[in-house]
Amino acid sequence: MAYLSMGEAHRRINDYLNRFCDAVSNQDGDLLKRLLSLSSNNPSILSLADALNVFQDANRLIKQNDNYAQFGEILVHLFRAFQSFRVGSFVDSYQAFEKAANAFIQEFRNWDTAWALQALYVMVYEIRVLAERADKELATNGKSPEKLKGAGSFLMKVFGVLAGKGPKRVGALYVTCQLFKVYFKLGTVHLCRSVIRSIETARIFDFEEFPTRDKVTYMYYTGRLEVFNENFPAADDKLSYALKHCNPRKEANIRMILKYLIPVKLSIGIIPTDWLLQKYNLVEYSNVVQALRRGDLRLLRHALQEHEDRFLRSGVYLVLEKLELQVYQRLLKKIYIIQKQKDPSKAHQLKLEVIVKALKWLEMDIDVDEVECIMAILIYKSLVKGYFAHKSKVVVLSKQDPFPKLNGKPVNS
Amino acid sequence: MERRGRRNRSSSSSRGSRSWSRGGTSSAEKVENVAVSDVPPIVGTCTLMCPEAERAQRERLRDLATFERLNGNPARSSPSIAVKKVKFHIISLHKLRGCSSQNTSPMHHLNLEQLAKTLTSLFNLYGANRHSNSTYENEAEFCSFYVLLHLGSHSQPLGESLSWWFSHVPSSIIKSKEMHFSRKILRYFRMGNYKRFLSTVAAEASYLQYCIIEPYVDEVRVLAVSCINSGGYKLHPYPLSHLSKLLIMKESDLESFLKSCGLQICTDEGHNLLPTKQTTFCHPKDGSQNYRFWGMEQFER
Known about the structure:
The complex is a heterodimer of chains A (413) and B (301).
Chain A: H1 6-25, H2 29-34, H3 43-54, H4 58-64, H5 66-69, H6 72-86, H7 90-110, H8 117-140, H9 147-162, H10 172-186, H11 192-201, H12 212-228, H13 232-245, H14 251-267, H15 274-279, H16 286-294, H17 297-306, H18 308-314, H19 317-321, H20 324-342, E1 349-351, H21 352-361, H22 368-380, E2 386-389, E3 394-397
Antiparallel strand pairs in A: 1-3, 2-3
Chain B: E1 2-3, H1 13-19, E2 42-43, H2 52-61, H3 79-98, H4 105-128, H5 139-148, H6 162-166, H7 171-174, H8 177-191, H9 194-204, H10 207-231, E3 238-239, H11 240-246, H12 251-260, E4 266-268, E5 271-274
Antiparallel strand pairs in B: 1-2, 3-5, 4-5
Helix pairs in contact in B: 3-4, 3-10, 5-8, 8-9, 9-10
């Protein structure tokens, strides 16, 4: 750090304090939010932090001036947070920032209009990000990480402040999304339920009033939850909404949505194009899609094995595994088409031993009893129309539409 | 569980152990009058239950966790204790199902709750005490139990979906033999592949794994019968001899099972057959007989 004189340090601190008070008195949300952006390595905040570390008596400056003193609770702790952040003490920084945020919320409650909403968003964002960094520091030092959990409790408090009839309520969805990020990081996704219930059932909220950006994030996270619970119609609705309304220039976000939407679409019989997979670098799904097109059970199993870790980490593995029945359906359809070309009059009768042979070519060691079992399941789940004759070891297909399409609905459970 | 009175207040530990040896007492032992101020120990079904003095103390303090803390620290306990508790609850699943004469549904529900709690505690302990990427000796086995507990269609005994849970399991655990088995069973169950499900359970399940899987065995058999009834050719009734092999049941048990499913059988040239497309099929009532795996008597302890 270049040498910083006491005079210059004093000047920077006063400058910040003046800007803070001006922002509040002029209800300038844009200015206020810039004064709170700690973790973005904002040069002016960093230079302020340097000044605070040189001029160690900023608290006196605050108390001596009535304009500054009225926001003393916020500023004292904010300064402490900046100082600690600058020297890499994230636990201290988080603790101080949380105190500043609590004091900010008290003021925010008293402001009639929603002018400070953007600043509140910054506070909420910084709380979460700082908490994550603090927990990393704690874990490195062999201590129990607990700051992110605390941040979650604070965000719930903020949600409560926004859940009212006034104009501030449009901020509730942003806070909800930050809560989702906290719960997903902590692994406590079941805690999302209560806040989802508030958003979706409380009369004070009209979903269409929320900013588009927040609606997209909300639908992305709730869509993911529906994927984990294998509720495919709901997952399709939510993730498709997120995709449709996502900024087309945000390719990374589109990729994140598609990562979950593709398995959902596959489960309801809709196959993405290769172009889409290439454009958004989702090539881990290429062989899965190919397996579905070809009826290639071996390829599906290889694809699942090859990307097992990735699919398990993102929570879509079990969804993709379930596609096996559709792959069987496609294989049978191919056998049927080949038979139809050879002898149309006998196409609708598939011998189980022919299916066994086809599966052996795919290196699947499945005996005739298991093939009969699979046929029974496919018929039961309406993926095949027909019946099987145990005695003659034959499947007799319906002459009308023997392989019904899913048409946007999941396989019968 | 039953309470027994102590012989006398000042019984030595050796006399106590003669009366109350682990795992049960001699029925020939006399039970003497109990002093009012005495707290009689409890004899339970768990063969690994703690010594008499500890049991008495647990009763007095009404605080089980005291004995499960390391160095008195309430935040720390021993995975080996949690392991014992989990095993106890899993075996209890099997034993409670075997009690057909009483209404054990509330106890079964409570036991399942406790199993979920102790399993969660165990996983938390594994996580809290983990050093770098190491895993505990029996961690894979207990993770496999967790997977099997999710076999039911909408089962989320621990509150989180299985997909979410899988995303946090270490790779070495995922690739273990025990998890490989559980994931296979889960796949067969979800797909409805009754043939593989039943044959794999019969061939590979450990006793504890079987205790968890047991209620789903009949569920899968019901599915199999439903599929065969609805998809089978009407003019080719299904031979019970073959069906009993598929469902790994004695033919006599199978007849009773089919009856409980509302289905009738017919006979042709001395062979019992299941006519298909019967419209009377129904799911057996809850609490109806459990049908054992044919040839798996070693699991009926």
